[in-house]
Each structure stands twice: as structure tokens, then as C-alpha cells.
Input
Amino acid sequence: MPVPTEATAEPFFMPGAMDPSQSLLAGKATLFPLARESFRATEIDRNIDSEERLLLDPTRDDPRLHLRFYVDRSRLVGLVYPAGETAILPNPQVNLSDLALAAARAGVSAMGAVSIQVYGLNRLGLVQARTRHLRDLEFLYKLSVELAELSAEFGEAIAMRKARLAKLPAARAKTAGKDIETDEKVCKRLEEFATEIRSKLKELMDPKAPYSELSGAWLRALLRDA
Output
């Protein structure tokens, strides 16, 4: 296995203000951190199964066991966290063994914490893209709710006006009837818009859609807040 060397210089951003001055070298390069360096495979002993990897391998590991999104709908930020009971993101460390130890002490996945730093999973561009996705989800959801409520209000008003038609003179009833027909078309279109938006939200929740894990975390937060 390759011996760790300095990673490619790429800013790693901390949660909060995400100040570009708060940066740390991040990027895979030739890094292959282990929990215990003494267990690293050598030219003589190539038993890599004994190595305690600290980096996620998507071909061997389930990322969901080590990485997690915690969504707060009052403060939408697309950060990824090491899996654990709570949203804890250990501070970046130059020594990755120290980072793994800090993660273990915090009760979160050491492999997740190290992978987040080394792979740069919380670099600014990714966080911004995830945050935009969360805001899109929130906007579409609120818009669908408002359209459905508006359609319902229209429907109630139309029903009341229809009930009064019988009491109107014939000429006025005819004019009012045409107005009601127009309003019914508007009401129907509002409901169709709401349905289309809900369908779009459903597409975004599809397991094969981009950011599906993040979308799922947002949905869980929505249900929790309901």
C-alpha cells in the first residue's frame, strides 16, 4: 500500500461562516490513512486485510453507515457529518489518527470523519451545491402547499357563490355563472400546478436521483417538524 504523502492543496471549510481563511489541506492524492500505522502492508507482508482502513471504499463499504446528513429546516446548510447519534463534525486535524481518535471520543464514525476531510466532502463548492438543493426542496414544498391552500379557498368561495345563484335574477345569474366557470378553471389550474410540483418533489426523492440521500434527510426533517 502507498505510504501517505502530503495531500493536494484544496480548502476544507468548517461549518458556520465557512470562512475561506479557515482552510486545511484536503484531497485524496496518495493518502491511505490507517488506524494503526504498524499494521500497514509492506512489500514483504502484503496482507492488506489486517490494515484498519480509515478511508471509505464505496466498492466495499456502505457510505450510509459512516456518513450522514442532518437537516435543520430553519437553517439549511448542506454539510455532511460522520454518522452518529448527533450532528458532530470534529475539527480537521493534520494528523489523521488524531482526527479518528477525536471522532471515536465524540461517538461518531472515525472512518466517516477521516473520509470527509481527506475527500474534501465539505469543501465550499459541494456545500453550496447541497445547500441550493435543500433550498429548492423547501421552496417547492412551500409553493405546493400554498397553491393547494389557495385552490381550496377558491373552491369554497365558488361553492358559496353557486349557492346564491338561485336567488339572483336570470340575467345576473347568467353573468355570475360565467364568472364562476372562469374561476373554476383558475381553481383547477392551481390544483394542477400543485400536483405538478408534488410530482417534481417525488422525482427528487427517487433513490437514483442526484442528492437522493440529502433529499431523504430533508424529508425526514419535514416529517419530524410536521
